[in-house]
From TrEMBL:
PANTHER family: ABC TRANSPORTER PERMEASE PROTEIN (PTHR43370:SF2), SUGAR ABC TRANSPORTER INTEGRAL MEMBRANE PROTEIN-RELATED (PTHR43370)
Record protein name field: ABC transporter permease
Listed transmembrane segments: 6-28, 40-61, 67-86, 93-111, 131-158, 188-207, 213-232, 239-257, 263-283
GO cellular component: plasma membrane
Main location: membrane
GO-annotated molecular function: transmembrane transporter activity
C-alpha cells in the first residue's frame, strides 16, 4: 500500500509542471497566438524561483518571482510578434534558445546549492488514510494551485464575458476588432498569463520536484506541454488528463529502471517523448476534430491598421 501511494504521489509530482505550462499555453493559443517558447519560459521560472528562494529563504517570494520571470519572457515574445509582427514560430523557437542560455548564465552560481523542498500541507486525520490520504491530502501548495487553475480556466473560458471575448479574438480577430474589442490587448494578456504559468511550472521543478538547480532541468517538458494542448484539443479538462497520463509514463520508466528490467536505460528515458509523438500522430489522423477545436486564427498575424 505504501509503495502504491508513493507511485501515485510521484505521478502527481511529475504531472504538475506539465499541467501549469499546458494550461498557460492553452489560454495563449485560445487567443490565437502560438508561443513555442514554453521550454525557455519554464527554465527562466525554474532558475529565478530557485535563486530568489535561496537568497531570501522563502518560497513565498520565489514562486511569484518565477511567475514574473516567465511573464517577462512572454512579454518579450508579445512585443516582437504582436507589435512588431515577427513570425510567431521563429520567435518562439528563439525564445526557447534565449531562455536556455540566460538561465544557464543566471544559475551558474546556484549549481549545487542545497534547498529544502516545498513543505507538504498535511491535513490531520485525512493525510494518514491508506493510499489515497497522502495523494489527495498530503501534497504541497503548488499541486493544489494547479488543480484550482484547471477549474479557474474552465470557468473563465465557459462562464465569463472576458473568456468569450478571448475565444472570439482567437477565432476571428478582425470581427472582434470591429465590435470594439482590443485584439492586441487581449492577446497580450493571454501571452503574459501563459508565460506566468510556465514560470510557475518551472519553479515547481526546482523547488518541489527536484529541489535544486541544474542546467536544462526541464528536459523537454516545455515541448510536451505544447503537445498536451493539441492532445487535449484545446480543452482544459483534457489538459489535466493528459498531464497525468504523461506524468504516469515518466514515472513508469523510472520504476522500470529501478526494478531491473532488462531494457537499456536510454530507451526507457525516451518513453515520455515517444509517447508524445505517438499521441500526436494518432490525433493528427482526425483532422476534422482538430479543425473544429483549434482556434481558427492561431499563429496568424493581426494588426488593427492592417
Amino acid at each position: 500500500m505504501d509503495i502504491l501511494s508513493m507511485i501515485l504521489m510521484s505521478v502527481v509530482a511529475a504531472a504538475t509542471p506539465l499541467l501549469f505550462a499546458g494550461l498557460g499555453e492553452l489560454v495563449t493559443e485560445k487567443a490565437g497566438v502560438l508561443n513555442l517558447g514554453v521550454e525557455g519560459m519554464m527554465l527562466m521560472g525554474a532558475v529565478i524561483g530557485f535563486a530568489v528562494t535561496a537568497v531570501t529563504g522563502t518560497a513565498f517570494l520565489g514562486i511569484p518571482a518565477a511567475a514574473l520571470a516567465g511573464a517577462a519572457m512572454a512579454g518579450l515574445f508579445a512585443l516582437l510578434t504582436l507589435n512588431l509582427l515577427a513570425n510567431q514560430v521563429a520567435t518562439g523557437l528563439a525564445l526557447t534558445l534565449f531562455g536556455v542560455g540566460l538561465s544557464s548564465l543566471i544559475g551558474q552560481d546556484f549549481v549545487g546549492t542545497p534547498l529544502d523542498r516545498l513543505p507538504q500541507l498535511d491535513i490531520p486525520g485525512l493525510s494518514t488514510v491508506p493510499v489515497i490520504g497522502p495523494v489527495l491530502f498530503g501534497q504541497d501548495a503548488l499541486v493544489y494551485l494547479s488543480l484550482l487553475a484547471v477549474g479557474g480556466v474552465v470557468w473563465f473560458l465557459a462562464r465569463t464575458r472576458a473568456g468569450l471575448v478571448l475565444k472570439a479574438v482567437g477565432e476571428n480577430p478582425a470581427a472582434a476588432h470591429r465590435l470594439g474589442h482590443s485584439v492586441l490587448g487581449v492577446r497580450w494578456l493571454a501571452v503574459l498569463f501563459g508565460g506566468a504559468m510556465s514560470g510557475i511550472g518551472g519553479a515547481y521543478l526546482s523547488l518541489a520536484y527536484t529541489p535544486l538547480w541544474a542546467e536544462n532541468m526541464t528536459a523537454g517538458r516545455g515541448w510536451i506541454a505544447l503537445a498536451l494542448v493539441v492532445f487535449a484539443t484545446w480543452r482544459p479538462g483534457r489538459v489535466l488528463l493528459g498531464a497525468y497520463l504523461f506524468g504516469g509514463v515518466t514515472i513508469a520508466q523510472l520504476h522500470a529502471q529501478s526494478a531491473g528490467i532488462d531494457i537499456p536505460s536510454q530507451f526507457m528515458s525516451m518513453l515520455p517523448y515517444v509517447a508524445t509523438i505517438l499521441v500526436l500522430v494518432l490525433i493528427s489522423r482526425d483532422a476534422t476534430r482538430i479543425r473544429l477545436n483549434a482556434p481558427a486564427s492561431i499563429g496568424k498575424v493581426f494588426h488593427p491598421g492592417g
